[in-house]
Amino acid sequence: MIKNLFVKLINFLTNHFSDTQIKIFSLVLVVVTVLAGSGYWVLTTWYQPLGPSLSLPTPTTDVLSSGTPSPGLTPVPGETLTPTIVPVCGAPPTLTILVSGVASQNYVYGLADAIRLVRLDFQTQTVTVLALPRDLWVEIPGIEDHGITVGKLNQAYFFGTQGMGYYEGSGYGSGLLALTLQENYGVWVDHYLAVNLESFVQIIDTIGGIDIYLAGDVYRKVNGQPELFLKAGSHHLNGKKAEILARQRIEIGDFGRINNQTVILKGIAAKMLTPSGLKAIPDLFNQLKRNVLTDLSPDQISQLICLAGKIDYQEDVSFETLPGALMNQTMVFDPARRTHTSALVGDTAGIRSLIEDFQAGIWP
């Protein structure tokens, strides 16, 4: 009943108000819908994380507990850093969320085949999404007792999964991936969100599919041979087709796949601005609670929804990738698989410097 009322309100707003007014009103209304629909559950768990919290130090906890500024900020001796712009939505000045696309139908096992750092700035009301190549060769901390000290970045998630049982820290796969990024590149992660293949498909189908434009043809393997999957040009994709597109790297490599994954993310963001996308928000919120691994609380999710209602996705959201010049494709020995494999060996200092700028809001 509440959901039907929400849909009727969206239809009314679509016919009488501007897109911006519809977006802001609708996203605020989502919070009211969830409150009314969830009742006692909301009252008792609104501020509780939906999944295991990360125990890693973050800029937020460091500042609150010790007064130490976030990475990338250099205070004048004796000066107290205070925000010059009041953050919107009752949120902290910034949040960095580690988002992983897990190549599995569940979360017991799985490689992180899509890895993104999402920086949300509640002061400037902007969002920056930084793609990290899954094949980056990194040191993996915390599981030395299992004979593993190095591997690809996506393996860090796999070794941390509950099914492997290697990692004793918090957050399972996301936790070990966050720790790996912190140890190698100085990444400070506030929260994590992991989406498996089944949830990815459901999310896109829930919003009615997405519209995208591909600059080049996309191939996939069929019986071990390349076969054309999508021609260059415009396409409307359902969840299953989007999943297939997100996983292909034939003839385009990992960087080409990252670009296509970014095309999908932009398609999702654009669809969320449409009346059908707005109508789907209550269902998406419920899916997030049931099917996505995250340590965000409902309160923090409402802050993200609030920020979404205030930004222009063309002007305020940017998608970035680490420069290819900082990485070289080469053969390395993988101790876990006991074989040589192709990986991206990066300029650790150079990547660390860019990520520090990213988290300070000065790159790109």
Give structural notes.
By secondary structure, the chain is α+β, with helices and mostly antiparallel strands. It folds into 2 domains: 2-71 and 86-207 and 272-360, Nucleotidyltransferase, domain 5 (2-Layer Sandwich); 208-256, no CATH class. It is 41% helix and 23% strand. It has 13 helices and 14 strands. The protein has helices at 2-16, 19-38, 40-45, 59-66, 153-160, 172-185, 197-206, 239-247, 253-271, 275-279, 281-291, 298-308, 348-360; strands spanning 94-102, 112-121, 126-132, 137-139, 150-152, 191-196, 210-214, 218-222, 225-230, 233-237, 293-294, 317-321, 327-334, 339-346. A 6-stranded mixed β-sheet has the order 11-6-1-2-3-12, with helices on both faces. The protein has a two-stranded antiparallel ribbon with strand order 4-5. β8 (218-222) and β9 form a beta hairpin. α7 packs antiparallel against α11 (281-291) and α8 (239-247) runs antiparallel to α9 (253-271). It is globular, with a radius of gyration of 21 Å. The termini are far apart.
